[in-house]
Design goal:
alpha+beta; Immunoglobulin-like; five-stranded antiparallel sheet; four-stranded mixed sheet; 9 strands; elongated
């Protein structure tokens, strides 16, 4: 094998290793970066979302905080921070229509969901704790949920077919969401 062929093969191998490394780094880093911006960015700070429920305005045709937002959904959120201990999440929407609460880890993995069908008429009462935390006393009636990260994001969705006519029902329902340090 000639030295030029060897150099080409080495160059191709180095190129392929670099492509694979960049690809893997992007797959690993992108979700974490997006979540860091979501959880610690200016909107999160403006809405005071750290261990506190925030209620965004209804989606309109001009809304573009997320790509293709659904005008049929009302969104409520909370950035939970378990670094100082557990966080308690409660909600009691009591709606006949769809609602859900989803929890996301710092890498954007969805690790817990509960919706209207699963909860029925019962109040949602979650005790969020870090996966590596010592077992803490869970309040009576609470469900222990272990988070794979000490920081994460809660997203509550409430379906509304016509916000203007349903506002008096859906707004109080979604505002039952509480997110507070335990």
């Amino acid at each position: 094998m000639s030295s030029s062929t060897t150099r080409r093969m080495v160059s191709v191998c180095v190129f392929l290793v670099a492509v694979v490394a960049i690809h893997l780094l992007t797959i690993w880093a992108a979700p974490r970066l997006i979540m860091q911006i979501l959880m610690n960015g200016s909107r999160s700070q403006a809405l005071n979302m750290r261990n506190n429920a925030a209620f965004s305005a209804p989606v309109t045709a001009a809304s573009r905080d997320v790509v293709m937002p659904s005008p049929d959904m009302l969104y409520s959120m909370c950035v939970f921070d378990l670094s100082q201990g557990p966080v308690r999440v409660t909600a009691n929407p009591q709606l006949k229509s769809y609602w859900s609460i989803a929890l996301y880890a710092a890498n954007s993995d969805n690790f817990f969901v509960i919706n209207d069908k699963q909860a029925g008429d019962a109040q949602v009462d979650l005790w969020l704790s870090a996966a590596d935390a010592n077992s803490s006393t869970v309040p009576a009636g609470s469900k222990l949920v272990r988070s794979p990260s000490t920081q994460g994001f809660l997203l509550m969705r409430v379906l509304t077919g016509n916000y203007q006519t349903e506002k008096s029902v859906v707004e109080p329902a979604r505002r039952t969401l509480r997110c507070a340090a335990g």
